[in-house]
UniProtKB/TrEMBL annotation:
UniProt protein name: Iron-sulfur cluster assembly protein SufB
Molecular function GO labels: endonuclease activity
Residue intervals of the DOD-type homing endonuclease domain: 385-526, 839-978
Parts of the chain that traverse the membrane: none
Family: Belongs to the iron-sulfur cluster assembly SufBD family.
Keywords: Autocatalytic cleavage, Protein splicing
Organism: Candidatus Chazhemtobacterium aquaticus
């Protein structure tokens, strides 16, 4: 798991047999219509089924389950349940009451009990639906009308079977089969009551559904069955909020009004990334409608319903800007003027080297105009030229591209000319002088250029940049801003009576452009604001101003070449806005609320992030997920979550004396679905993902326990090999791609990756950054290996056969069997070498082969191996030298001098049998190459670089028509600790010239990666010299964690990741690794995801991880409450806390069993265990069984165990002030529990308080 904070404990109580009256709480006097005899028989099972008028298939399932129950032994997992006397239990009790829909109709004796725990209040305030079960029957049920109209079904299980038999039959017993275990078989045989929930496709449950259960009769069994089916796209939310039509949403294609959003759209989320819309909603709304205006954009007004959450920050001091930014989801009514709304920084980055523009060109009378693609280098110079066009550019008659400047801006005029020549090769231009306004227009006559620049808007109010420019690299975007500012910007600096006032301003009539460029400025770390001025009375369009003021002027000034001092008027430049690199914080300036009736409002769901940017600020599409309470005794819960659906099941269990809590709970989750059990989850790796062992690369499904795999030692900050302790198949699950350039891994969305977190709420002195493991779907940056450990061994080559047999028909009527033996002309050994691997790599890029087969049989009769390698080629000398060492054959030079070949059937078969085969478009890297020693992998890639590579600006680029081949090479580079990026230059067929010959290229792709000195041992000397000339800079920032001062070791670096839904469900696996708890998979450091839940456990595997368990146990007469927790520290500076509170009364026994383990490598770890027991009388007992395993020297472990009794002095003190003995005792108990109660969720605390005040009477759960 990523990090463990608070883990709610769900304890299973090991109680005595069911043979005594309740002492603390007596059973309610309820008359029973049916009360079966004690014991379980086939006749009873048939009677239960008959009374419920069940279909034949259900009876048959019950009888089959009864047979399995009788055959199966008592389970040994969990606590000892041998004390249960199955023959002494009443298996079916039916009260003389029917299920009612109104709380007022519930019998008063039943109502009194449920009112004690707040069922009616919870229903009014929190719940969408309620079911209350009394012994074997559901006696009260309700469902909000609005949900019933949507098709939501919330019935007792018996009603569900009667009304929806086909749905029940389809899913009943599929998730928990009748033979799963003895208790599941028992439940299937005698089940009665429980809940059936069905949520139709695309429907959201607005409020929680909750069920309450009570065993009222002694020696009774309650065997409720719960079946929940959540159809495709359905979700369970707490409250749904919406927006009015016209609200602007930030999408990957620009701004759109909310009513035009479709499922094809990707929207910007609060995490600064684009995510797909997964469902749409529109409804009529009556209620409070909030209108919120904020500083930073005078054009925006946020209009939303009263329940819609907004990502906001509360202001700390009224007249001062916040110093820290603790974000929270707040409803509009919880936000005050002065609080901050958040604008996320769009962090999507997609870098292009070449961009294609469609233009129409004349192709003669027969074809007329045809559309072609013109490639333009996507360089900083091109971006600055576009910036000039956005400010000063225009198009005349479709043929003339104009840039208009003042005659005093000669520097900019010459810059445009220079840029046009460098980017487009356009040297000819004409200057047109406008004496009236002292202007000069630079005019370029080119229809093609006009068509290219039309993409940026033909008129000033339509100016814009394509969305791909919004997501380009920072160096290019800086130049875009420079060009735009030089044309439309100004630096206002004027002294007033109040002092000097300064601001940068850029004006435009294009609303779209001003918003796009503010987004770009935020990406560059500069906060700006938007103002608008109406000019309708002047007959002119609205003017938009993008302004930069306060402390942000310094950075912007550096960008555009204007020196700005850090202070103004002898004071540090102030600003009302905040910024932390990921968000801009804008203060609220006005909030209004009005009541509306039947207004059409809109909302939509968003994959994973469940948020979007509306009206310029981050909002949620829902609030926290809902909960439903669990079940009791020998119950079975089956949950089916369909594709794209979401369900959360949380159990608040308070089991009481004489009751065994024996529940089997399981969920099946479909493609894209999400099931959340409060107490943990599993993350996994998809099949075919590769790990590194000392012997080579192995797929995760082929790893064996005991093998060693590559891992990262966080304490020593280096790569190591560690033993695999366990391996698990986790079934088919929805998987997602996490990638850094061409480095890619496929995992479940919750698998943990090595990274870091930033906590703005922590004091700066303690450090706000900490290393640790982060879920894949919350990951923005990962810490990955930047080097490798040598592993693997030479490959045993498959040698060609020297004996050839074939049929020959020459001169023989019936043919002749010909056998030829030949002497080997190969001069190589049995295993791979560095030189041979260079040759294989070089052939991938520049090699070819010709094979001639026999006429009668497909037997190779003749073959030759060739290379496109002219005499002046940089690799020619090495190629000729290695070939002379490989084969005894003379080369043949083609007449044009650009191709050399060797005629050798044996040589060609060496390549073919070892996996080097095919044309350029379909070649692959053979799988065995990944398991070679590092030196040979380096040699192999070096050969490919010599064939298709170039050195440019500190990087190596390899071009190919074969995208799959480049992906193979990228994967191989990962084993060397090298991150690469794959670019598509064009994917359609084009005519190109290669070495002077015209040919058709079926696409062009480029793999780019940083120069690594290890390649210099093998690549051509010309490339080595060029590498030394460019001398790539070491990017130290890749090892610095934010602004923390934490510097990573030399084996790893930080890289931004991309998280994508691939829409697939695949077999998944996980392994457990000794010591480090992590392993390297596809070039990522990922963690064991297993979380043992025998007792609530926290495996603290990331540096600085924290774990906490809070538990309460109440043991009454005849009860033994055995609770516990585990804290396993694997990483340095981890911390944990266990607080266990137990209360014993009337002879009850409470015990704590816990383990704290400080593993080797967990230096600086801290743990505190507090076990407090309160004994209310002399008959009760409390025990503590701690286990502490310390395998590291520098750690801190505190263990406190206290046992207290309620003394006569305490009671006398309280009773002397008019408090009864019962009330005084309850006050002492509540005070004892207070440290835990204040830290559990509000709704649970309410219920727990009521149960404490009830002294845990009866059996309510």
């Amino acid at each position: 798991m990523t990090r463990f904070a608070k883990v709610k404990q769900e304890s299973t109580q090991d109680l005595g047999e069911l043979d005594a009256k309740y002492r603390l709480g007596k059973a309610d006097e309820v008359e029973y219509e049916i009360k079966s005899k004690k014991g379980l028989t086939e006749r009873l099972v048939r009677q239960i089924s008959k009374r419920k008028s069940e279909p034949k298939w259900m009876l048959e399932m019950r009888l089959a389950a009864l047979k399995r129950f009788e055959e199966m032994p008592i389970p040994k997992w969990g606590g000892d349940i041998g004390a249960i006397k199955f023959d002494e239990i009443h298996y079916y009790l039916r009260p003389k009451m029917k299920e009612v829909r109104s709380w007022d109709e519930v019998p008063k004796e039943v109502k009194a009990t449920f009112e004690k725990i707040g069922v009616p209040q919870a229903e009014r305030e929190y719940l969408a639906g309620v079911k209350s079960q009394w012994d074997s029957e559901v006696i009260y049920g309700s469902l909000k009308k609005v949900l019933a109209k949507k098709g939501v079904v919330f019935l007792s299980m018996d009603e569900g079977l009667r009304q929806y038999p086909d749905i029940v039959r389809k899913y009943f017993g599929t998730v928990v089969p009748l033979g799963d275990n003895k208790l599941a078989a028992l439940n299937t045989a005698v089940w009665s009551g429980g809940s059936f929930v069905y949520v139709p496709k695309g429907v959201e449950v607005d409020l929680p559904l909750q069920a309450y259960f009570r065993i009222n009769s002694e020696n009774a069994g309650q065997f409720e069955r719960t079946l929940i089916v959540v159809e495709e796209g359905a979700k369970v939310h707490y409250v749904e909020g919406c927006f009015l039509a016209g609200t602007m949403i930030e999408t990957g294609g620009g701004r759109k009004v909310i009513e035009s959003i479709t499922k094809k759209d990707k929207v910007l989320t609060h995490l600064g990334r684009l995510r797909k819309v997964n469902y749409l909603q529109s409804r009529e709304y009556s209620g409070g409608l909030y209108r919120i205006k904020y500083w930073g954009d005078s054009t925006e007004e946020l209009v939303l319903t009263e329940e819609h959450p907004i990502l906001a920050v509360r202001r700390v001091l009224k007249n001062e800007r916040n110093g820290s930014w603790k974000r929270d989801w707040l409803k509009p009514g919880e936000i005050n003027v002065g609080d901050y709304l958040t604008i996320p920084v769009d962090r999507e980055t997609r870098i292009r080297e070449i961009v294609g523009f469609k233009v129409k060109t004349w192709s003669g009378k027969n074809k007329g105009y045809i559309e072609v693609v013109r490639d333009v280098p996507c360089t900083p110079e091109f971006f600055r030229l576009v910036g000039y066009y956005l400010a000063e550019g225009s198009i005349s008659s479709g043929s003339y591209l104009n840039f208009s400047f003042s005659k005093y801006e000669r520097e900019y005029i010459e810059d445009v000319k220079r840029l046009m020549k460098k980017v487009f090769g356009q040297e000819k231009s004409h200057e047109s002088v406008h004496k009236k306004n002292n202007g000069i227009s630079v005019v370029f006559s080119s229809v093609e250029l006009c068509q290219i620049f039309e993409n940026f808007g033909k008129k000033s109010y339509l100016k814009q940049i394509p969305e791909w420019m919004v997501h380009e690299s920072e160096d290019k975007q800086r130049e875009l801003l420079v060009g735009w500012y030089r044309g439309d910007g100004n630096y206002y600096r004027k002294r007033h009576s109040s002092g000097l006032k300064e601001v940068f301003r850029i004006n435009t009539t294009s609303e779209k452009l001003v918003r796009q460029l503010r987004t770009v400025l935020l990406r560059l770390g500069v906060v700006s604001y938007i103002n608008a001025r109406e000019r309708g009375d002047e007959g002119r369009r609205m003017m938009y101003t993008l302004g930069v003021s306060g402390e942000w002027m310094v950075k912007f000034g550096e960008m555009v070449g204007v020196e700005v001092r850090m202070k103004v008027n002898d004071k540090k430049r102030a600003t009302k806005f905040g910024f932390d690199g990921d968000y801009m914080y804008v203060p609220v300036r006005q909030i209004r609320c009005e009541q509306v009736r039947r207004k059409r409002v809109y909302n939509f769901g968003v994959d994973r992030d469940e948020s979007y940017v509306a009206g310029g600020v981050a909002v949620h599409n829902c609030s926290a997920p809902a909960y439903t309470s669990g079940s009791l005794h020998a119950a079975v819960v089956e949950i089916v979550v369909k594709a794209g659906a979401r369900c959360q099941y949380t159990t608040v269990q308070n089991w009481y004396k004489n009751v065994f809590n024996l529940v089997t709970k399981r969920a099946w989750v479909g493609e894209g679905g999400e099931m959340r059990w409060i107490d943990g989850n599993l993350g996994c790796i998809a099949e075919n993902q590769k790990l590194i062992t000392p012997d080579g690369v192995v797929k995760i499904e082929q790893i064996k326990v005991g093998q060693k795999v590559l891992s990262y030692d966080e304490r020593k900050e280096r790569l190591v090999f560690r033993r695999v302790l366990a391996k698990r198949n986790s079934g088919r699950q929805r998987v997602y791609d996490v990638s850094i350039g061409a480095r890619k891994i496929r995992v479940t969305r919750n698998h943990p990756f090595y990274s870091y977190r930033y906590d703005s709420t922590r004091p700066k002195k303690l450090g706000r950054y900490e290393l640790g493991f982060v879920r894949a779907d919350e990951l923005s940056k990962a810490i990955v290996p930047r080097t490798s450990l040598d592993y693997g061994k030479e490959y045993g080559l498959k040698k060609p056969k020297l004996r050839t047999e074939f049929w020959s028909g020459n001169q023989h009527k019936n043919g002749l069997r010909v056998v030829r033996e030949q002497k080997s002309r190969l001069k190589i050994g049995d295993r791979t070498t560095g030189k041979l691997m260079w040759l294989f790599g070089y052939w991938l890029g520049d090699g070819d082969m010709s094979i001639k087969y026999g006429v009668n049989e497909k037997v190779v009769r003749w073959a030759k191996l060739g290379f496109s390698c002219p005499k002046d080629n940089r690799a020619r000398e090495r190629l000729m030298g290695i070939m002379s060492e490989v084969v005894e054959a003379s080369p043949t030079e083609r007449k044009d001098g650009v191709h050399v070949s060797w005629s050798s059937k044996e040589l060609v078969e060496l390549f073919v049998t070892n996996g080097f085969v095919g044309k350029a478009i379909d070649r692959r890297v053979p799988g065995w190459v990944w398991s070679l020693p590092e030196e040979q992998r380096i040699a192999f890639v070096s050969g490919y670089i010599d064939a298709d590579g170039t050195v440019k600006e500190g990087r190596i680029d390899i071009k190919s028509v074969n995208k799959t081949l480049l992906e193979d090479v990228a994967s191989l580079l990962v084993t060397l600790g090298i991150t690469s990026r794959l670019f598509t230059e064009f994917s359609e067929s084009r005519e190109v010239i290669i070495q002077g010959y015209k040919t058709v290229a079926h696409g062009s792709y480029r793999l780019s990666f940083e120069i690594d000195g290890r390649f210099e041992r093998y690549i051509a000397g010309v490339l080595v010299d060029k590498i030394k000339q460019v001398s790539p800079k070491v990017k130290e920032q890749k090892r610095l964690v934010g602004r923390s001062g934490i510097k990573l070791g030399g084996d790893v670096e930080i890289a931004r990741v991309k998280f994508e839904d691939v829409g697939k469900e695949l077999p998944t696996w996980d392994i457990e690794v000794e010591g480090t708890g992590n392993f390297i998979c596809e070039g990522f450091i990922v963690h064991n995801s297993r979380l043992t839940m025998k007792y609530p456990a926290c495996i603290l595997a990331g540096k600085g991880a924290k774990g906490e368990t809070l538990s309460i146990a109440w043991a009454g007469e005849g009860q033994h409450q055995d609770a516990g927790a585990k804290m396993i520290h694997l990483a340095p500076k981890t911390s944990s806390r266990i607080i266990s509170k137990s209360i014993s009364k009337d002879g009850g026994r409470a015990s704590y069993r816990g383990m704290v383990q400080m593993s080797k490598g967990a230096s600086g770890a801290k743990s505190k265990v507090v076990c407090d027991a309160l004994i209310l009388d002399d008959k009760s007992r409390s025990d503590t069984y701690p286990v502490n395993r310390i395998w590291e020297n520098e750690v801190s472990l505190e263990h406190e165990a206290t046992v207290s009794k309620v003394g006569e002095e305490q009671l006398f003190y309280l009773m002397s002030r008019g408090i009864s003995e019962h009330e005084a005792e309850a006050m002492i108990v509540n005070g004892f529990l207070e440290p835990v109660m204040k830290e559990i969720p509000f709704e649970y605390a309410i219920e727990m308080n009521r149960l404490v005040n009830l002294e845990m009477e009866g059996s309510v759960g």
